[in-house]
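Run log, item B.
One chain of 225 residues. Sequence copied directly from the ordering sheet:
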Amino acid sequence: MKLLVVEDDTIIASGLTYSLENEGFDVTYCENVRQATQAISKESFDLCLLDVSLPDGTGYELCRKIRQGSDTPVIFLTAHADEANVVMGLDMGADDYIAKPFRLRELLSRIQSVLRRYNKDHKSASLFTYKDLRVNTKDAKVYKGESEILLTALEYRLLLVFINHQGHVLSRDQLLDNIWDVAGDFVNDNTLTVYIKRIRDKLEDNPQDPQLIKTIRGLGYKLGD
């Protein structure tokens, strides 16, 4: 599920992007109207979160541009929650309006509510494919080509973290924050190394030259190119 986040406050944007990605969203971040206009001209999004006040324009302008070419849901983020601004945003075609500061849970609830109105649900996608890797999350089954690959619970959980952040570099700390040991054993940095090696041994054509889960020297790991 692809989200466009347009926010000029880099601190807010960083926290918001990190949190949304942890919820399984694929986030594209822009900090002004120019960048966002380029983004929406190149790709489609399932939902747009637009700050109203931007350094080179307003979220209202972006909402108009989005509405000219699609029915993509729009939620405004703003520090100005007076009635006039709310009405203006909704009249321009926005689906919802949330005032800063906001709680992440509240925002996620609003996002899910809007997506349901559009018959979308970012948790509903049950099949992930990449090269010859297929993961059916509905049945919790993993395939390489036509062969089913048996993973332990923690190996599978770790693979899902990579899938939910495809193309993004994940640090070891981020990976540790996103997994837990369902068997009750303590998961530490060394354990993480072991599990990544096990997944590579099971899924890679050549575990010594991994092409699925790649090591990004000095930064971490990522799934995909």
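Observations after the first pass:
- The first helix runs from residue 10 to 22.
- The longest strand covers residues 2-6.
Flagged for discussion on Thursday.
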